[in-house]
Amino acid sequence: MDTLTLNPHDFYTHHGQVSDPGEHAHHFDALPDDLPGIIAAFQGIMLHLHWATRYGIILNRVREEEANLRTVRDRLAKVFELQDAPLTEPRPLSKKTVGTCRDFTLLLTSILRQRGIPARARAGFGTYFSPGHFEDHWVCEYWHADESRWVMVDPQLDALQCEALSIDFDPLNMPHTIFITGSQAWQRCRAKRVDPNRFGIFNMRGLDFVKGDLIRDFLALNKIEILPWDNFKLIAKSFRDMNTEEKDLMDRLARISSGEDQDFVLLRAAFVTNQGRILHEYFL
User: Fold this and answer.
1) Which of 5-9, 109-113, 148-152, 224-228 has the lowest mean pLDDT?
2) 0.85 exceeded by pTM
3) Residue 1 belongs to some domain of the structure
């Protein structure tokens, strides 16, 4: 069905393998009906790996490894292993599952899809973490039927983070200009409109990093939400070592990964055509 549908809203209403909560799906029923309530609930059960010390907790290596949980099914299993309680019951810091921005985004995407709301993860760069720098980040988009538009949400930003970052926008209805998708970043850098070294995280930055987020965004738009550090040969391969065909492929994926409805058929066709290369031949 997913492969054949030409309707993006139908496509993003259904789970992919990564977002499927599996046997834990019924736990979503207890969550609030409103978006602020949903996000507040799962912020009460999950802790961001790189923000942990700001909340006053030091994570050991075992807890840090939870950021490698790939699927929503496995994430929820860990949540209930740490504390067997409804998702609406906030956990103490020591009982929160540990993840990254990708995991906050993936969980919201899963909850919305489970409720029949088209939703998708986007990989790219936030402009609001460090002035003048585009920081590697993930956000969620959902289809607002009444307004006929995709609404961008940053489900990671809670009160503490909003204060620390001096956030002056609504994280539940973000201006699209403050988050640069991987495809947008690639196009801007290729056109030499922005210095690629402004994109990245920690000491990792540059055009090769942007290429990684382009591929992550393309796959997320096809409902394959890989881990931020999953490696593919085209992600790991330096731009200067890529041949013309590979560079042309990246340019084309960037053009059709806009997220606009009119590009959906091309996006899916490119995935079906190139998935063997991107998901198998190019996987390390």
Assistant:
1) 5-9
2) yes
3) no
Q: Does residue 151 form part of some domain?
A: yes
**Closest listed residue to residue 211, CA positions, set 250, 265, 158, 269:** 250
Distance CA(86)–CA(89), nearest Å, equals: 6
Contacts of 140 (CB under 8 A, 6+ apart): 105, 108, 109, 112, 119, 120, 121, 122, 152, 153, 154, 155
Report how far residue 199's alpha carbon sits from residue 101's, in angstroms, rounded to the nearest whole number: 16
> Any idea how long the chain is?
284
pLDDT in tens, 66-90: 999 999 999 999 999 999 999 999 9
Total structural domains within the chain = 1
Cα 86 from chain centroid (whole Å) = 25
Residue 13 is encoded by which pair of tokens? 């209403």
Assess if residue 277 is contained within a domain.
Answer: no
Is it the case that residue 140 has pLDDT exceeding 90?
A: yes
Amino acid (1-letter code) at residue 270: A
**Is residue 272 in some structural domain?**
no
277 — pLDDT class (breaks 50, 70, 90)? low
Strand partners, 107: none
Q: How far apart are CA 277 and CA 279, in angstroms?
A: 6
- Name the residue range of residue 81's domain: 8-205
Identify the residue whose tokens are 């507040």.
Answer: 40
